[in-house]
Q: What sequence folds into this?
């Protein structure tokens, strides 16, 4: 189980990036919204959509499917 966060500020593409808590490019904690501890990556990506209209997985810590 891993802890997940979503960036409060949108990236250049307009998406809010979802990160695993141990991501090497994780921004400062005050720039993040805690999603919580989850057992897979699909759940945090879906939950981020509850707060922000556009979200995307971090290419460094959440593998593409």
A:
């Amino acid at each position: 189980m891993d802890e997940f966060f979503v960036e409060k500020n949108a990236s250049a593409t307009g998406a809010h990036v979802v990160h695993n808590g141990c991501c090497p490019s994780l921004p400062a904690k005050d720039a993040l919204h805690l999603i919580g501890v989850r057992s897979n990556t699909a759940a945090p990506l879906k939950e981020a959509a509850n707060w922000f209209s556009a979200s995307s997985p971090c290419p460094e810590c959440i593998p593409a499917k």
Q: What stands out?
A: Residues 2-57 form one domain. The longest helix spans residues 42-51.
